[in-house]
Amino acid sequence: MFKTAGLRPSEIKELQELEAMGYQLNQDVFGFTAYVDMEVNKKLDTTIFDGLNEQLDIETYGIGVEKIGFAFIALAPKFFPENRRIEYFPDDKVVLMKLQLNYEKLIAASNEEAVEMMKQLYLRGVRVLDLFEIEDFDIERLYTDVENYLYPNDDE
Q1: Between 20 and 30 A from 31 (CA), which of 10, 97, 125, 145?
Q2: To 10 degrees, what angle do helices 111-128 and 139-150 make?
């Protein structure tokens, strides 16, 4: 799926790992998956993000990104030390984010609080994309549209 020419072996391994985790980037512009353990499995629901593929058109933000993959990490730190990674592959126009939820807070959280933690983590990931200075892609507009999707205005 990804072009690997010129990538370091560690980057190729990361792409293969993310693909094996279930990214459906061939089908979805916005792909989601999660590393979870049994303690928090029922609290995490990536389906809350499914509507992004229906409501947002990635082309309206420019041509710099065609697909965004996101993995939520929810594993005990003793088994999975903190591991965050956001990468942009300009040749593929793909962004891959792998970000960790605070495991201790997640254990204590209600289902609603866990969903809120997921929303906030995703928004932080989108915000960090500014650091990549992706040419011809309006990250600020994407952030605003994702935020409006996750937190719709009740007055409308």
Answers
A1: 10
A2: 170
Backbone angles phi, psi at 52, to 5 degrees: -60, -40
Cα first-last separation, the chain: 40
User: How does pLDDT run across 12-57, given as a tens digit for each residue?
Assistant: 666 666 555 544 444 678 888 888 888 888 888 888 888 898 999 9
- CB within 8 Å of 9: residues ≥ 6 apart: none
Using CA atoms, how far apart are residues 93 and 25, in angstroms rounded to an integer?
A: 12
pTM of the complete model: 0.81
Rounded-to-integer distance, Cα 79 and Cα 68, Å: 27
Any idea which residue has 């993310």 for tokens? 18
